[in-house]
Specification:
Layout lengths: L31 H28 L8 H9 L9 H21 L23 H10 L6 H9 L9 H13 L3 H13 L1
Helix pairs in contact: 1-3, 1-4, 3-6, 5-6
Amino acid sequence: MAAPPLPPNTPASSHGASNSISAPSPKSPQSPAIREQQRIELVLEINNELLQEIDRLQKDGQGGAVDQAQLQHMRNEGLPEKWASESYTQAYRRMQANLTWLMPKASQDPSKAPPGPALMTPPSHMTSLFPHYERLRALFPEWQGLDARMAAASSSPRPNGPNSQQAAAAAAAAAANGSMATQQQQGQQQGQY
């Protein structure tokens, strides 16, 4: 009995094919269902690596609170107050943003999902994720993420007071938490352009 044929996106290791996994071509026409499946699979793959990195950083003592609410929770529980390292925070925020995008997809109402993960750039210390995020941006050509919007806003000629970075971080945290207020602000901003 012959083996069933491989699905079109399964790399074949025979016939001298290279061992590298190629990114789907964003220029080739794909059905929305196939594109959505590729997006979900890639976000899950990225989250797997992010989770491993978070675990490694936690074991190295770099974990801790990533926001004021977590720090307050640590105080209330009588735990030592400690801020997470920048590397830990970057990985944590991206995993959180990815889960925020994935959760409505798994529910009965995927229409409530944001247009894409809020953070579309890899943590700066995780160079192994750079190709994954390039593929992610190719799979979301219409969505740059909130990190790109914040970078564009920070390069505008506005005064950069001491609270501007805190406001940007708060906006990213709100987006990663799936805040309805952030989604409403996005809708208002889009209406202004």
